[in-house]
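Before the break, one more example. Copy the sequence into your notebook; we will annotate it together after we see the structure.
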Amino acid sequence: MKKVIVIDDEPLARSIILDYLSNYPEVTVMEECGDGFEAAKAIALHQPDLIFLDIQMPKITGFEVLELLEEKPDTIFTTAFDEYAIKAFEQHAIDYLLKPISQSRFDAAMKKFFLLRNGKGMKPDTQVLQSIQPLERIVVKTGTKIKIIPVDDIIYLQADDDYVQIHTKEGSFLKKVA
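Here is what the structure looks like once it is written out:
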């Protein structure tokens, strides 16, 4: 049984994905989340095999949710915006579904997921995808809270093994480097 979490701020989009998932008896939906904060908590709690992740959400984006995770589950992005596709595949996305999502396109994404999970497929080679976009902010976990640090507030960065110390006027914050 594969565990899934559906993350989207639009209830209609979540209901469509849930409807499509009802055709997959080998999948159990652990939770559905309406924002990135809920998502980060649900992923930590349930350790899903797969998440359906919207990009544009209130408070923190789908990409920022992934930054918060130690162990990243397989991800299928679901969004109305095509301009984030390269960045999504740089995050090792299994697929990138544009809304409105058709049943056939959804089924193709699920097929990719199952092929990867069964060792019969390979994740796309993201080394050829080169797009450097400047960061505007960095998201870090501080205990049970999430801190959003605007890049302009950073005084300096300091390497610390697999982590980076982010120094600001407010103090320093530790972030694991992927």
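Residues 103-117 form the longest helix (15 residues). The beta strands are 2-7, 27-33, 50-53, 74-79, 95-98, 137-142, 145-150, 154-160, 163-168, 171-176. Try to locate both features in your own notes.
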